[in-house]
Write a structure and sequence with these properties.
The chain has 222 residues and is mainly alpha-helical. The protein is built from 10 helices and no strands. 73% of the residues lie in helices and 0% in strands. The chain is globular, with a radius of gyration of 18 Å.
């Protein structure tokens, strides 16, 4: 059994060390666990838990690749990602009762994941020579779409649309990435600066409950 698991995850172990990859793997695992918790709140069975975990973790990148015409879709070439997110989602069902003690850790991992997803989305669009506005949209799609899909499938208004500064953080990271790249900064330095700035922005937004103005329209038309 352990030999077969080692064979599955061998592609991950053989990859050259890459900060963005490491953070991405941690992020998709954390997002899968958040999806599993959302499924649990809706009393879903284990299949539902696995589906919501998968969609939350890998849905953003899938939507980005479809929109940009970037084929083959990323996770189809890296099945180890699928195993990782499904295992993380199912493992959540065993440790869920203890996870409220780790809320702060999850918020931090989620913030890092948001930055990583946004940067990866930008990089994919740049490699395909899309214009700046599309690069930014690709980064944001990658960053927030998984959470949107999770909330829609769990029959609730996506939190990104009504409560927290989340998409705004993704937008900030994408714009900062492009500005620094335009200034000719080293790619590793750009990654570190974007992670630091994006993480700080997200944590400050949570700490001080920053949010965008809301629009409420209750007037009936009939």
């Amino acid at each position: 059994m352990f030999d077969s698991l080692a064979h599955v995850f061998q592609p991950l172990a053989s990859k050259q060390f890459d900060l963005l990859l490491v953070v991405y793997l941690v992020a998709i695992a954390a997002e899968a666990m958040s999806g599993a918790l959302a499924a649990g709140r809706r009393d879903m069975d284990f299949f539902g838990v696995a589906v919501i975990a998968f969609v939350t973790a890998l849905g953003g990148g899938t939507i980005r690749d479809v929109v940009l015409g970037h084929y083959p879709i990323g996770w189809t070439q890296h099945p180890e990602y699928v195993y990782l997110v499904i295992l993380a989602g199912l493992a959540t069902t065993l440790i869920a009762r203890f996870m409220h003690h780790m809320k702060r850790v999850f918020l931090m991992l989620d913030a890092l994941g948001l930055v990583a997803f946004s940067l990866i989305g930008c990089n994919v669009a740049l490699q395909l020579d899309y214009p700046v506005v599309v690069v930014i949209m690709a980064g944001m799609l990658t960053g927030i779409s998984g959470g949107v899909l999770r909330d829609v499938l769990c029959n609730q208004v996506p939190v990104v649309f009504c409560r927290e500064l989340y998409a705004s953080v993704s937008l900030f990271v994408c714009v900062l990435f492009l500005v620094l790249r335009g200034l000719g900064w080293d790619s590793d330095l750009i990654t570190l600066v974007c992670f630091g700035a994006g993480f700080a922005f997200r944590m400050l937004a949570l700490r001080f409950a920053w949010k965008l103005p809301t629009f409420s329209y209750q007037q009936r038309w009939d």
